Amino acid sequence: MTSLFDSLRLRDLTVANRVWVSPMCMYACEGEPGVVGAWHVAHYGQFALGGAGLIVTEATAVLPEGRVTPEDAGLWGDDHVAPWKTVTDAVHLAGSAIAVQLAHAGRKGGKFRGLPGDEFANSSVPADLGGWTTVGATGEAFGRYDAPAKATADDLAATVAAFGAAARRADEAGFDAIELHGAHGYLLHELLSPVTNTRDDDWASRERLLLETVAAVRANWPQGKPLIVRLSVDDVAPGGLTAEDSASLATRLGELGVDLIDCSSGGLVAGAEYAATPGYQVPGAATVRRLSGLPTSAVGLITSPEHAASIVAEGSADAVMLGREMLRNPYWARHAASALGVSLPGVSRYHRAHA
Q1: pLDDT one-digit tens code per residue, 8-41
Q2: Does the active-site annotation cover 274?
Q3: 8-354 has CATH 3.40.50.720 classification
């Protein structure tokens, strides 16, 4: 029976345990577009000190127009590499592995960040305030956002190339793994789902953009480093993809060099409703794992050590992703280990706390 604190090997990377930090948008690049800074070093470093096995970064755009907000992180330019290297060095020094989530927001990009105290939320940033025209599978808008331009064949080909170039930069920046954001209604997901991809050209082949992106990334990413794909394994939309559909897709992704599926759900269309309860996305992860044979991670209101441990022990997923709970308690992994009677290697400079 696998333990939450057993290591997990993905290609040449051995992740120390199965407690992972889920990607969470931070909207914290407030200087040069896409350039991370000291705040990111502190933010990601705290999780490493707290004992998380793998930390997945916020959505990091492969093109300027692929940002969710103007304050998003990026890897579309070589000037982004050195700042990210500062972050990865800090995480490695504190004992954890780190993956970058590469993303293109598609029609859901270019919005106001909506942090507490901000004047606007859930609407598009106008051009005179730093916004841009987004691109989508079609010209249909998401909710209250501005309508995108329908992506041309050249736009989509350029996006594939941008993901490949960002993968090369991710290696230079010292990342241990890449996660491709193919979930939550962003561009890769938008083309993937029958609900949103109603095109009538060659890109009506719904899996094409994701599969070509995986191939481009794998070609620019060392063979010894793992590649993860985040999927909304259930679209939570009438006529959308189901966990069984996602399992079939995962099989093809595995053949192209994907090593793990990070299982989430929803985000495709505005107004979709579902009950978010502790572990509500675990069944999808279990289905993908069982039918595809690929390792999975599960996310979704997982907060207690006992619950997290049971997910891994029962074989529903190979790792658990924690988001908001990690923000509340960056040392969750160490506290969970203590609660479960497991001894984690301590931080030597903190030896007084562990004596």
Answers
A1: 999 999 999 999 999 999 999 999 999 999 999 9
A2: no
A3: no
